[in-house]
Amino acid sequence: MIVARAPLRVPFAGGLTDLAEYAERFGGTTISSTIAPAAWVTLLPSVDGAFEVRASGAAERAASLDELGNDLVREALRAVDPAHPPVRLAVWLDVGSGSGVGSSGAITVALVHAAHAFRGERPGAAAIGARAAHVEVVALAGNSGYHDANVSARGGLLRLDYRGAQVTARPVSMSAETRAAFEGSLLLFATGWQAPTKPSLQTLSANLEGALPVLHDIKAVADELERALGAGDLARAAWCVGEQQRLKQLLPGNFVDERVVELTGRVRRLGAAAQLPGGKISGYVLVCCPDGQQAAVRAALADLREVPLTLTREGSSAKRF
Prior knowledge:
The chain is an alpha+beta fold. It has helices at about 20-25, 70-80, 105-120, 125-140, 145-155, 175-185, 200-205, 210-230, 235-250, 260-270, 295-300, and strands at about 1-15, 30-45, 50-55, 60, 85-95, 155-165, 165-170, 185-190, 275, 285-290, 305, 315-320. It has 2 domains: about 1-175, Ribosomal Protein S5, domain 2 (2-Layer Sandwich); about 175-305, Alpha-Beta Plaits (2-Layer Sandwich), CATH 3.30.70.890. β3 and β4 (about 60) form a beta hairpin. α2 packs across α4, α3 packs across α4 and α3 crosses α5. The N and C termini lie close together (about 5 Å).
């Protein structure tokens, strides 16, 4: 049996500049980190020559890979081996689906990693991330940008730069004291909201020309955040987290409504910054408290469920049992 794990992520700045057309034309940049919750995949050989898949609360059997209805599973297995043998496969998430913390990308990474391990292969993190991103962006026609799969496969608090599908990564340089202060300033709350990412990103892509000035500004925020963390400027880092949200709300797509305005306003009035991660109105709100506002934020968001948040350094993994 193969058990694969791929971490989820929280973005801080630059998100949406990893979308294929923008990244190919202008280059994109993101700053983000993997977190403790993850996607999990178990994979075993078939016992009767059929594919069996359990994911998202549904179960299916298929006589061939082509007949599988689960798009992510089908295309991830196909990307590793077009003639993938029948298997029994299950997918679990430590959070709900459609949450905005990179669940689709992490699932795809875990699937790709598990399929390679099933073949006895041990590709590097960059190769796993590239193959998983290809599944989401190309095989599934733009279900995501290049970011989620690449950060999940690698792990850590990373700057990722995109030239189309070509991705380079480096850790964001900062002192140990700054990293501890930045991580300690962060809070994560579940909103209970759910929405699909694909329609929002399709709207953005269809109106890309008009969105270019905002996307250029979003990319500049990623550069600014890297400088702020390198300088130990927590106040400026928090500004970047909030500025990402403000700019995202100017884009065509499903990024803002009255709920978002009210929620982010509650946080902003306390001198903290709020961001709803992902390419939509997501199921979580990330808050950065640069001046010790954590208690006040918790009180102001007492109607939401706080989720423990730990920034991690590990990327995806797969083990055979």
